[in-house]
Backbone:
């Protein structure tokens, strides 16, 4: 199962449209949710075998640079990811920095990862 979290509804709709245009049977294994990534632990079943949690942080390239990932929610999401991912699993971070506060977000993410 793949879970996707988006707080910007327009982006969620576009992702849903792309997913629905896919002719593959696996699209039923994808759940796109209009909630913050910090809610991860409330959505993913407790006994799920999660092998990867991937974060795409910052802002949407080509989108509104005022809508950015918040360090506070990222910390909560990373904590939830740590508790959710199975032993030997991976947590991946991709951080876009081309917006005000982008470098601070990277530094915060690095400190958070060290703490997690």
Residues:
């Amino acid at each position: 199962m793949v879970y996707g979290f988006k707080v910007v509804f327009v982006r969620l709709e576009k992702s849903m449209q792309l997913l629905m245009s896919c002719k593959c049977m696996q699209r039923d294994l994808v759940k796109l949710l209009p909630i913050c990534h910090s809610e991860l632990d409330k959505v993913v079943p407790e006994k799920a075998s999660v092998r990867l949690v991937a974060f795409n942080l910052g802002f949407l390239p080509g989108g509104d640079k005022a809508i950015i990932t918040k360090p506070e929610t990222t910390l909560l999401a990373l904590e939830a990811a740590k508790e959710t991912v199975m032993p030997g699993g991976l947590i991946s971070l991709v951080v876009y920095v081309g917006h005000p506060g982008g470098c601070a977000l990277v530094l915060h993410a690095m400190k958070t990862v060290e703490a997690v």
About this structure: The chain has four helices and four strands.
